[in-house]
Amino acid sequence: MLKHRVIPIVLLDGYSVLKTIQFSTRRNLGNPITVARIYNTRNVDELVLLDIDASKYGEKIDEFTISEVASECFMPLTVGGGLRTCEDISSVLAKGADKVVLNTVLLDKPEFVAESSQQFGAQCIVASVDVRKSGDGRYEVYSHAGRDFDTPLLDWIMELEELGAGELLLNSVENDGLMTGYDLNLIHMVAETVSIPVVAAGGLSSPSDAVSAVDNGAAAVAAASVFHFTDITPDDLKLEMKSSGLPVRI
Amino acid sequence: MGMIGIINIGLGNVDSVGRAIRHLGHDYVLCHEPRELEAVEKIIFPGVGSYGAAAKLLGETGFRDSLRIEVLDNRKPILGICLGMQLLADRGEEGGGGDGLGLIHGTVELHRGADCGVSIPHIGWNDVFDSGGVLYDGIPDGSAFYFVHSYEFIPASKLQYVGICDHGIDFTASIEDGHIFGTQFHPEKSQECGLSLLDNFIKYKRC
Questions:
Q1: Most CB atoms closer than 10 Å: which of A93, A171, B25, B177?
Q2: What domains can be seen in chain B, in order of their start residue?
Q3: Could you say which of B13, B48, B189 has the minimum Cβ distance to residue A75?
Q4: Interface contact flag, A123 B127, Cβ < 8 Å
């Protein structure tokens, strides 16, 4: 039976690791290779490496960092940050990535999901969706570039699935970095709407949050702050998931 | 220990396998042409992509004939990974279909899990049971490995050792028949268990 994955996310601002709170306040956490090495010794299921500044500055995630991490990490490696073309994807795959995360490019050019999915296979394409609540409490798709994006959330995720995304990385902007738990309603709503795997991110605070996310339909749980700033490890999450009867890889 | 040759005929990224071999403290060469197989002692055949296209490439490059000579006549151990394992079979139906290497008799067909309500492609970590044999030496039964595939290997007859994985139905996750080995999963992406499996292949001495 397929396992529910626990995935640490490593955010980069070019060359060093950082962590945000609600996508803004930043804290620097040092060298990505060192951080990846620690996760490798923790025998994690997958690692996500995201450069959150690349798109803003018209750059893409540093390839040297990818190849250094890939030389030490023998697990699926998912990378993102400023990837806009099939050539960009080819070059990060050649450096050792297995999957790519697409986000900003999709808001301008959703058809890029189809183009890249046909070329590299749906298993390679992770569409990232950042969600925040509007003033009246509705969920809306958050655009990093600060521009308006009017497509309603559920229409947007159905479109991404239809275009050939293999997986959704679902992040809650409000919950990011706060370690107050996932937005379970959001996870539930998204997982009910699409049939591709949904990776929950944004707010995990304790092992029981991982169980709740899966109970609400997440195929995998991702987190950053809780692993950076507390004693909780990916294994702690998995042990809790296992004791709740969920299939995980221990 | 003799040199390991990794076949590189454009069937996806071979570097991940190379990095894992190097991490284990061994060296390897990439074999772009059939004659380069002559100098190696062991062969690793990684691959992702479509069976039909790969089968065509095996013929065009001459690798089909040389691999059969090196593995069957010269008895060099081979490890096929993912599509590389599928290509050990006689034939596959994907992508217009095509002939494999015929090193282990069987066919490659769309994963039967599709009829059992599970999603195909089968992507993620899943357990492998009843494996035994050389590859799993020191690896606990039921360890999880990382899979990404839509088709499955259906052996024509009972093999010496077969690792079984459950995805909708029980299917062949790995095969071992004398000095011929294959894994449907990616050992190079399967953390410690995967590295141990690769190491077992590297250290394997033919009887």
A1: A171
A2: 4-203 (3.40.50.880)
A3: B189
A4: no
